[in-house]
Write a sequence for this structure.
């Protein structure tokens, strides 16, 4: 069991050898995400005091009004990774197309691409409710020495080499995996360092929390409606407790610690659901599976879905294994 007082920096170096491509490049990349997270955390913590809340005045490719903090976080993560010359491409919720990052020697020597949701839970920024950042990392599939292409980004989630999130909540935590379990680090703001506070995080196989925006209930598929009724039934250890923060990162984090299920199903309003496969569902699915949980679109394992577009959406069910399997059972038995 890793030493509990270890800093994130120490943990990254110490665990580099457990990663199959131990060139140090991925370690430097995660370190740069750590740095950008601290910079963004500084702004998030004083949202309301400084001119960082409210709409930025533009809409992103998904037609959503960009919040000032969406744009700020997007800039900080992209700048930090670009300056450190460790990625060959970045895709972001806030960028229409992927960005080619060229190594200083101008011949595309870097091996990793990053997909990022710079600020998750944007609707909660102005109301002082926890928000997050989500990242997903792949090794490029196109040859080193050539510019990245869309092919490097449209990889199945089961090809991720690392994924994680930052939650800016009652404390700020960075939680990530490189395919060898999930570890959580809490920022000590006085010292400015992340410390290993949650080693080897695991989803309880069962839980009593369900997280879904019930305001969309009438639009949900029959299987989801029936599963929600099952959660609310007076039987065995039910009814479950309904908890929905409206920030995927925060709902996921709570459910991973306490046991629970998060659902953003398709609906007549959102025929493919709302969440984005590449920089929301795939990274959370990788973390869930590495923490003994499960993630699907109700039928297919999220990480086996072949992406076709950078900003595509998928229905998302994720959390404690037995709860996700129960929801899938309701979906299978109530096909419309
Ligand atoms: O308000 P709704 O429709 O329930 O959607 C909430 C969901 O949308 C999101 O805010 C989408 O993420 P962004 O804020 O990054 O766009 C999730 O974090 C959250 O779970
Ligand atoms: Mg998001
Ligand atoms: Mg976002």
């Amino acid at each position: 069991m890793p030493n509990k007082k270890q800093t994130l920096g120490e943990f990254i170096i110490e665990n580099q050898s457990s990663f199959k491509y131990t060139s140090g490049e991925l370690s430097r990349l995660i370190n740069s995400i750590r740095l950008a997270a601290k910079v963004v955390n500084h702004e998030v913590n004083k949202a309301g005091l400084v001119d960082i809340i409210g709409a930025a005045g533009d809409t992103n490719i998904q037609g959503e009004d960009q919040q000032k903090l969406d744009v700020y976080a997007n800039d900080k993560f992209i700048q930090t990774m670009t300056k450190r010359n460790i990625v060959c491409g970045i895709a972001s919720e806030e960028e229409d197309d992927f960005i080619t990052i060229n190594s200083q020697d101008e011949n595309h020597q870097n091996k990793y691409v990053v997909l990022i949701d710079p600020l998750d839970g944007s609707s909660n920024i102005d109301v002082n409710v926890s928000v997050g950042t989500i990242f997903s990392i792949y090794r490029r599939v196109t040859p080193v020495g050539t510019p990245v292409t869309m092919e490097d980004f449209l990889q199945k989630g089961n090809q991720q080499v690392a994924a994680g999130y930052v939650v800016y909540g009652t404390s700020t935590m960075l939680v990530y995996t490189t395919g060898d379990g999930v570890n959580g680090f809490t920022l000590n703001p006085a010292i400015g360092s992340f410390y290993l506070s949650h080693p080897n995080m695991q989803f309880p196989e069962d839980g009593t929390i369900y997280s879904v925006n019930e305001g969309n209930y009438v639009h949900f598929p029959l299987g989801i409606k029936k599963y929600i009724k099952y959660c609310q039934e007076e039987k065995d250890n039910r009814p479950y407790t309904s908890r929905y923060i409206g920030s995927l990162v925060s709902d996921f984090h709570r459910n991973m610690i306490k046991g629970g299920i998060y659902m953003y199903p398709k609906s007549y309003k959102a025929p493919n659901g709302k969440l984005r496969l590449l920089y929301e569902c795939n990274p959370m699915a990788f973390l869930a599976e590495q923490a003994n949980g499960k993630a699907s679109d109700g039928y297919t394992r999220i990480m086996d879905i072949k992406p076709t577009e950078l900003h595509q959406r998928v229905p998302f069910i994720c959390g404690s294994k037995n709860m996700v399997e129960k929801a899938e059972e309701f979906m299978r038995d109530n096909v419309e």
Observations:
- Residues 93, 117, 120-123, 213, 246-248, 274 surround 1,6-di-O-phosphono-beta-D-fructofuranose (ligand 1) (CB under 6 Å).
